Amino acid sequence: MANLLFHGSIRKKIIVLVLLATLPAFMLNLGTALLHRHQAIKSAKHQTLESLHEFSEIQRRISDSTRTLLQTVAEIPEIRELNPHAAQITLETILKANPIYTNAILINLEGNVVAAGTGNATNLNFADRKQFKDAISTKKFAAGEYVVGKTSQKSIFPFAMPVLNANGNPKGALIIGINLNHYRDFFKRSNFPENSFFGLCDHNGNRLFRYPKKENIEVGTPIQEAVFLSAKTGKNPGMIVTESTDKIVRIIFYEPLRLSSDTEPYMYLFLGIDESEIQQGADLILTRGAETGFISIILTLAIAWFVGGRGIVRHLESLTETVQKIGSKDFKNPSGIDYSDGEIGQLGQAFDNMVNLLRKREKERNNALASVRESNERSRTLLLNTPSGICLVNPVSQFIEFMNPAFMDIFNVHDENLKNLQLKAFHPQKDSTKVDKIFEKHILHEISFSPALPAMTLNGREICVDVSSAIVTINGRNLLALFFTDITAHKHSENELIGAKEVAERANRVKDEFLANISHEIRTPLNGVMGTLQLMQETPLDSEQESYVEIALGSSNNLLKVLNDLLDFSKIEAGKLDIIEEPFELESLIEESVNLFQFQARENNISFHSHIDPSTQKFYIGDIGRIRQILFNLIGNSIKFTESGSIAVQVYSLPHRDPNKERLFFSVEDTGVGISDDKIGYIFESFTQVDGALSRKHQGTGLGLPIVKRLVNLMGGNITVETEVGVGTTILFCVLVTKTDYIDIQDKKDHQRKKSDTPLRILLVEDEMVNRIMAQKLLEKAGHSIICAQNGEECLEKLRKHSFDVILMDVQMPVMDGFETTNIIRNSKEFSKIAEIPIVALTAHASNKDLNKAKLTGMDEFVSKPFNKEVLLEVLQKMHDLNK
């Protein structure tokens, strides 16, 4: 018994001593495992943050390219002039070339749509949208917020660019919507771990995009408040660990995006990874370290047990075989020791439990390794297949240490060129200094971007690239990561667009000059013809002679109408026709329009009547001249194409969403020849007539209805036609007008009644003899006294010798033209006493440009040739009355 106790005591001492000897090694092994676990977690977080940065680079490039595109389009003259037709074509082209855009819209300063790329947003208003208000107030590129598209009814993210006039003031804005669903495909290709997600929110924290989408998470709803506050106030970029709405604890990495460094973020990006996915691999490292130490202790104790008692050798051999199986990763067979055999049985049981634990851990390790391999493959696939050229550069030596296939393709780099390449190898020599300085900024700043940078491939081809960069840390070293996008083709297209724009502008200027010159050359002799005919009407004529004069005047007026139609059409096409709003009386407008054609209707035995619906007001504010022009064209057409029967003009009022406005609805109905179905589509086309034959019965330029349609559109209305061959035609149109009261019109009429017919002393400055004699005779017959001058110098000489009530000044004259003469009268000391004398421009230049130039020079009124006697006399009397 004593001998047994002695051996038991020795065995225990040996076990204690061996255990104490192996404990430090076990603790060291466990500490190393903990350190490796920490590094594994840190590496996984860094890789996830890099993935988020790749997403941010995509969005940054989208916003930068959108800024460049809108900035270019906003400079196009047709866009700056808010030309609906030209803008429609441009915006449609943008959408076709860029599928990522949902719609492109041009809006005016009131937020109303001028043109849309999809063509179906013309009745919408965007004045309440953030991107519009920011673009107008800052005059800069602006981002919006979560919004449901007014036309697409889908969630989009919008940007806006102001459209500025020549003085740099906002005239309108371009708005473009971005479809964020392209991130879905990018996320799928990245193969992130299960339960991962990618999301976007706007500056208010409203969700813009989330993939994968959850049933209880809707776009447009706020994201988690804690996550948004962390992204808004935390480190940039940064992360937060939180439990998501689906009860999964995630590490969420975030990064804000800005349009510039001095602006608030307009968007936040989020990439969430299941925390257990990251910790699982790290825990495996720790478990394996602990298991290794535990096995070492167990083996040591087994040896001690063997030293303490030789009777356990057989069991130790069994345990040794089991350990060998574990070494060969065979966890199927237990130790074979009877668990009831005292301490050896307990040891065997513990050993078998450890085998089962190792079997479980091995399975977990294999799963973790598969996840790591999948993550590495995902990163490798992303790096190899991204369209952006990526390289890593030593910021000190500027040697390139890594480049992906896209970079090699952009810069024509082959395998034999990979060694000892510096960044400056891709800098063009002529721009080397400039490009070197730009890349110095990239090296100094954590994140940088340089658009449209010149570069050169290894085979000497000059290209243009967008470059962004970031400082990254790899294995403890700071490297410069550069991301290149080849925009050579885009830049070439942009240059071609600018060239085409310049060509179009030159052609437009040539066309304007031609129309101005041809107008002047026709109006000058026509003025003499019409003036002489008006003089003849003042002389005694027999009935036959009166009819001849009336025919000649009618033909002259028709020629003048053709000329005015050409000029109006040219102005409309160029978007330069102004709508002038003034008070008018509806009944007077209809009476004037009907009375003008009553004589022709009676001659053709046509019944002609009008009707104004009681629902209409008596007075409105609108462009009465253009409405009258529309009615004259339509009624004139009805007279022309109706041989017998009737013509009816009717007016109704239609409500408008603005209580201060109404739509006036006009109809002109006749029982004329009608229009066949195969011709109805052409009647609003320029220079087109239903009957195009040389022998056609009804002559004309084919501009009347096209001008009518464009005028109606300019006044916020539309036009339609109902017709049947042999039955007749009804043309219906509406225009937008403003309501007013009786006082506005009455005040105007009272002012007109106050005008007098006082004889005036008039200085007539006209170089063309026929026009000078004709104008002099007309004015003298009206009771005025006339002194003539043939050019500006003679005009100044006459002013030195005589006093006058008003000057009637031609514009285009030899020696000294009307503009120069007016400038001298208004500004020289010699004529300071009469500097305020009324000056009326009398010219064959009849465009708005000429009118504006006359007013800027100092002329008070503008009468275009050929003029009507009553119009000229009224203007002269008006000048005298105002100058009293």
UniProtKB/TrEMBL annotation:
Catalytic activity: ATP + protein L-histidine = ADP + protein N-phospho-L-histidine
Subcellular location(s) per record: Cell membrane
GO cellular component: plasma membrane
Protein name in UniProt: Sensory/regulatory protein RpfC
CDD domains referenced in this protein's UniProt entry, alphabetically: HAMP, HATPase_EvgS-ArcB-TorS-like, HisKA, PDC1_DGC_like, PDC2_HK_sensor, REC_hyHK_CKI1_RcsC-like
Pfam assignment, any one: HisKA
SUPFAM superfamilies from the UniProt entry: ATPase domain of HSP90 chaperone/DNA topoisomerase II/histidine kinase (SSF55874), CheY-like (SSF52172), Homodimeric domain of signal transducing histidine kinase (SSF47384), PYP-like sensor domain (PAS domain) (SSF55785), Sensory domain-like (SSF103190)
Membrane topology category: Multi-pass membrane protein
Record domain Histidine kinase: where: 517-739
InterPro entries cross-referenced by the UniProt entry: CheY-like_superfamily (IPR011006), dCache_1 (IPR033479), HAMP_dom (IPR003660), HATPase_C_sf (IPR036890), HATPase_dom (IPR003594), His_kinase_dom (IPR005467), HisK_dim/P_dom (IPR003661), HisK_dim/P_sf (IPR036097)
Quaternary structure note: At low DSF concentrations, interacts with RpfF.
Source species, domain of life: Bacteria
Residue numbers of 4-aspartylphosphate PTMs: D810
Nucleotide-binding as UniProt keyword: yes
Sequence ranges assigned to domain HAMP in this UniProt record: 310-363
Matches recorded under NCBIfam families: sensory_box
